[in-house]
Automatic annotation (TrEMBL):
UniProt feature coiled coil, ranges: none
SMART domains: TGc
Transmembrane segments: 40-58, 65-84, 121-140, 147-166, 675-696
Protein name per its UniProtKB record: Transglutaminase-like domain-containing protein
Species assigned in the record: Oceanitalea stevensii
Length: 829
């Protein structure tokens, strides 16, 4: 080690740096499953190589740690800037390009479901994030030489990768990272030992063979423990950790389905829950309906900038009433319309207040004393507390083809239904003129400013200005019920006109829109297609993108039908809730998180808000029986998609009576996730309890060694020797001098020559500390004590070693000191 170049290279810690970066890459590799491709792999290795090289070179120069980290940060930023420079527009600076890439990456994360398209922005965000995490691990594990602490971010990254994917993490990734981390710890331990051996005062202080044997033994034990722990964590963590993506619809999980354990958040983004593989029930219920409708929670007409948002409290609170009233329910009760009363009884509710899931249209609810209000805007129930059980009465609609011809007829001005001489005019004092039908109903109002409101047969209003311009006000109080998304307006209006053709009845138009979206042209998939450029060179908006690529999940299908209907002047909104779930052997249906669903509701003249189902059948099953043209529509053949594709929700027999199963086929892990989770929790509790005494022992040993003066440090090391040998079956005499203890231990453990010399040196140093006029330094006391204890440890049985590890005397003494009137035993003289 006298060669200065070799010494400088070792000081750079090249191997340790490579190991730290390798560990981070291994545990973060599964994050790539969230993206369709991995274009960042090449640049990532280049940036990481730059970080390793710069850090190691700067460390060779013997500079402070903060300067090493600063150099690595600058190198990382330089590497990222170089990548961004290659993807920047010709007229933009690199800094502006980096900012734009970050914004694009964040937008991709927020917009697309997994696996998301590998846009340049998302690639840049992933590249920068992994490289930054690698720098953190490298700084902790190498620059600061805190390899054990570096394991914390490694574990968090591994857990995050498992949680984000929603599937069991392949143990290989965890084990490769754990192996690299263990080798890093071993490398650091060996390097520290070599540094200590190179010290002049340690040249003849300890037997290197014995020290190496003890070090390798401890490393072997640590490796075995870490290997088992890594395997356990790699299998268990994905099942017991919550899934927390950037946009999440259901923000809880329903362990045993207790009241109020999940809820719909303000994002109204179903991506995560559609991919959820948990079979924990959200709702269990029974019904006399052989083909029950979805369980509806809320709805909204508000769509802006590619996102649906719910009605806010300011919009809905003033409309809350203590009784249920729906236009659909009122219409179905009218003569000439057929509807069958149905009842649903919820036996287990996991939806958090103030939300409640009910079929539509409900007519009555029994919540067992829980306070509730009905919100006509959005047609939803608000509850004061989550009821554990409840009952709902609702109406099952007859097929639309059996309805009277006037239902869904194109709305016209009510005045056009009468001859001119049948209408009467009356002018008020303020100049307002009222036009009335023979039955006395008002069909038009002309105000003093010349504006006329023509009432239409569907309840909507044509507002005609004096200059002849007309704007349509919808027949519903919901805002934006007729607003077509501006970004996709032209595409939507052209397609809606093409599909509607010469049809005029709203039901006929709606059925044609539904047929088109359920046709084989469209593919159901949680994986959205890659971005598509529009005529202006910019990526298409979400609706235009879906209509062009014809690939998406329920939200895209429902959104498209809502906008197509609005383009035909049919008010439409998006409803959110759950599919009916799977039916058990006893008739109970079970709804799980992955049954989250979105569908369109169209306001049909004479009928009110009516559900349609444009999502292809492999997800939603057949279309509503009332919303078909006399027969069930063909179900497209499901297309192969990545593993994140949603399972089928067709009624299936669960593994056990009672319907505990969720939708789709379940793997071994899904079927045993609950058992695995409880087993892991029990093992964790046992390990926690078993570690109390050993940790107390380590605390006791640290306290013994923390003396500030050399005398206190020597005494502390001697206490460690006495306690360590006592744990291994060699108890000290009741009272003995240091030399008497030395002779006692020499007889009991029968040491070899190097160990006997280490025992003699420790005894001589203790005597000098106690009795000599000149206080000795600690010197090799710690190494000598370790060699003596390890000699005895190697000779005792495995059972004795296990007891010494789990129930050390120092730990028992330290815990005993916590009891009233007890103190730790003093060091033996």
């Amino acid at each position: 080690m006298n060669d200065p170049w070799v010494t400088a290279l070792l000081r750079g810690r090249w191997v340790e740096s490579a190991l730290a970066v390798t560990a981070l890459v291994a545990v973060s590799w599964p994050l790539g499953e969230l993206v369709s491709t991995r274009p960042w792999i090449g640049p990532l290795f280049g940036v990481l190589l730059l970080v390793v090289a710069v850090g190691s070179l700067v460390r060779m120069a013997r500079v402070p740690a903060w300067l090493v980290i600063l150099a690595q940060v600058l190198a990382l930023l330089g590497g990222l800037a170089g990548w961004a420079h290659q993807h920047r527009p010709p007229d933009e600076s690199t800094l502006v390009a980096m900012s734009a890439l970050v914004r694009e990456g964040v937008l991709t994360i927020q917009t697309y479901s997994v696996p998301a398209p590998a846009t340049p922005g998302l690639t840049f965000v992933v590249l920068g994030s992994i490289a930054a995490l690698a720098l953190v691990v490298e700084a902790l594990g190498v620059t600061f030489r805190a390899g054990a602490i570096a394991g914390v971010p490694l574990l968090l990254v591994s857990a995050g990768a498992a949680s984000g994917s929603g599937q069991a993490l392949d143990p290989r990734y965890f084990l490769i990272g754990a192996a690299a981390w263990l080798v890093l710890l071993s490398q650091q331990g060996r390097a520290r030992l070599e540094e200590w051996e190179d010290r002049p005062d340690a040249a003849v202080s300890v037997d290197r063979v014995a020290a190496a044997r003890g070090n390798h033994h401890r490393l072997g034990v640590t490796a075995r423990v870490m290997g088992v722990s890594a395997l356990l964590l790699a299998v268990v963590l994905p099942g017991v950790l919550p899934h927390l993506p950037p946009t999440v619809l259901v923000d809880g999980r329903s362990g045993e389905g207790a009241p109020g354990t999940v809820s719909f958040t303000d994002t109204l983004d179903l991506t995560q829950d559609l991919a959820d593989r948990s079979n924990a029930p959200v709702i269990r219920y029974r019904t006399d309906d052989s083909s029950p409708p979805p369980l509806r929670v809320t709805s909204t007409t508000l769509y802006d900038d590619g996102r649906w948002t719910p009605f806010g409290p300011a919009t809905t609170s003033q409309y809350q009433v203590p009784e249920i009233f729906t236009i659909a329910g009122y219409s179905l009760a009218a003569p000439g319309l057929e509807a069958t009363p149905r009842t649903m009884t919820v036996t287990q509710n996991g939806l958090r207040a103030p939300q409640l899931a009910v079929p539509y249209p409900p007519t009555a609810v029994d919540l067992g004393g829980v306070e509730w209000l009905w919100t006509p805007i959005g047609d939803s129930l608000t509850v004061g507390a989550a009821p554990g059980t409840y009952a709902v009465d609702y109406l099952e609609m007859a097929p639309l083809t059996t309805l009277p011809e006037e239902i869904g007829a194109p709305p016209v001005r009510a005045a056009e239904r009468y001859a001119a001489d049948e209408l009467t005019t009356e002018t008020a004092d303020d100049g307002t003129t009222f036009l009335s039908a023979p039955d006395g109903s008002t069909v038009a109002i002309t105000y003093s400013d010349g504006q006329t409101h023509w009432f239409r047969t569907d309840g909507s209003i044509e507002a005609e200005d004096p200059d002849g311009r007309i704007r349509l006000e919808p027949p519903v109080p919901e805002p934006q019920a007729l607003t077509v998304d501006p970004a996709s307006r032209q595409v939507v209006e052209d397609l809606a006109a093409e599909l509607a053709g010469d049809r005029t009845n709203q039901i006929d138009i709606a059925l044609e829109l539904q047929r088109y979206l359920r046709s084989p042209e469209f593919t159901y998939s949680l994986t959205l297609a890659d971005p598509v450029e529009g005529p202006d060179g910019e990526p298409l908006d979400p609706i235009s993108h879906f209509l062009a690529t014809k690939q998406g999940y329920c939200t895209q299908f429902a959104t498209a039908m809502v906008m197509l209907a609005r383009a035909q002047d049919i008010p439409a909104r998006l409803a959110i809730g759950f599919l009916p779930g799977s039916r058990g052997l006893d008739g109970t249906r079970t709804v799980v998180a992955s049954d989250a669903h979105a569908w369109p509701e169209l306001f049909i003249t004479g009928l009110g808000w009516t559900r349609f189902e444009p999502t292809p059948g492999q997800r939603s099953g057949t279309a509503p029986t009332f919303a078909t043209e006399g027969q069930q529509q063909a179900v497209p053949t499901p297309q192969e998609v990545p593993s994140t594709e949603e399972p089928t929700v067709a009624p299936a027999v669960p593994d056990s009576a009672g319907g505990a199963g969720g939708s789709g086929e379940e793997g071994w892990f899904e079927r045993h996730a609950e058992v695995i989770g409880w087993t892991a929790l029990g093992l964790a509790a046992v390990l926690a309890l078993a570690s109390v005494v050993p940790l107390a022992g380590r605390w006791h040993r640290w306290r013994s060694r923390r003396g500030r003066s050399p005398v206190e440090q020597v005494e502390g090391e001697w206490t460690v020797l006495v306690d360590g040998l006592a744990d291994l079956g060699v108890a000290p005499p009741a009272a003995a001098t240091p030399r008497a203890l030395r002779d006692h231990y020499a007889r009991e453990i029968a040491p070899d020559a190097p160990t006997r010399e280490a025992l003699n040196r420790a005894t001589d140093r203790l005597e000098s500390a106690r009795y000599a006029a000149q206080t000795p330094e600690l010197g090799t006391m710690r190494e000598d004590v370790r060699q003596v204890v390890e000699w005895q440890r190697a000779r005792v049985t495995r059972r004795r070693r296990l007891l010494a590890t789990l129930l050390p005397a120092g730990g028992r003494a330290q815990l005993g000191a916590l009891l009233p009137g007890r103190r730790p035993h003093p060091a033996v003289d």
